[in-house]
Amino acid sequence: MIGAPDFWRLWYVGLIVSTVRWLETIAVGVVVYQRTESAFLVAMMTMLRLLPMALFGVFLGALAERFDRGRTLLIVVLMMGGTSAVTAVLDGTGQLEIWHLAFASFINGCGWCTENPVRRVMIGEVVGREQMGAAMSLDVGAGNASRMVGPAAGGFLLAGTGLQGAFILGVLMYGTALWAILTVRSRIPRVAGSEAVLARIVEGLALVRTDKRLIGVLVVTVIYNIFAWPFTSMIPVIGRDRLHLGPEGVGILAAMDGIGAFVGALLVGLWLTPKWYGRVYLGGVVCYLVTVVMFALVQSPVLAGVALIMTGLGGAGFATMQATLVYLAAPLHMRSRILGILTVCIGTGPIGFLWLGWLADRIGSHHAVALTGALGLLALAATWRWWKEI
Fold it and tell me: What is the secondary structure of 168-183 as a DSSP string?
């Protein structure tokens, strides 16, 4: 149940991992743009954090069923903390290069795409099916709270202590997450059976092809991650070039999205009933895409912040219902592998980041974001027959 200590320990781990991810994303984005003046390279740093989802997500989801999930989670967080520690040392000794940041982004992306499905399956087993919607609301709320704290902290640390300070704080925060994992008492049983990982993947894909709800959720997920989510990589660029903000201002601006998302997750958790799950999921994507276009076109930092609050509200509905709809539709013994397939769909994001970064270098970051958001709305309309069953 949600009141169980193990749920809150797992919730805390997700809060820390997400906070550090946002802290490092904003700090790295600002530094890379300062050094290179390339919007494309800024987008690539975020893209590398998502690339492992596309490459390994489905395998990790199936593989996770064969190992102790608590131990897997511990190893993953330890790996991410170690990567951040090495990056801090390189920066402190004056040896840090752009390719180091790219490599660290990819390694921590590998950790993120493993942590997310493993930890959420553990949450589901701890709280039970009936409370999964509320649990996901709280979990997404934690992730959204991190989007308030992480970007702002990244901006202020970068201005005050440099990139090294941002990564040192990340290492310390990962340390508290490791402690939380070590105190989890629940032991989630491994799935019985010795089928090969590929056989499990094939079985999961076969289920998806026969379930219209799963097909719809996955189609919308792909649209969101190609046309909507990548705009976040352009916040440092638009903040500096179009809105004329410094590192602190960019951090505060990026936090606006998190504020909206946090409020949205609270509203979903308090008032949403199961019959509205699908509508909130779809409505959240539409709201997100519309306000992304608004953010790109306004020239006032205040109006840009308001637009980001609205993207956060829409994103909260989407993110909360995404994992919940998949979890509830998947059979008990296949949840890890179906969430792994969802992870692959999330991993299509690199396509969007590549496209957006390439386009931004040619027509400007704000024009590229506005055009991509509009294309996302068109893609959503064109795929109506696949998601109408959600």
Answer: HHHHHHHHHHHHHHHT
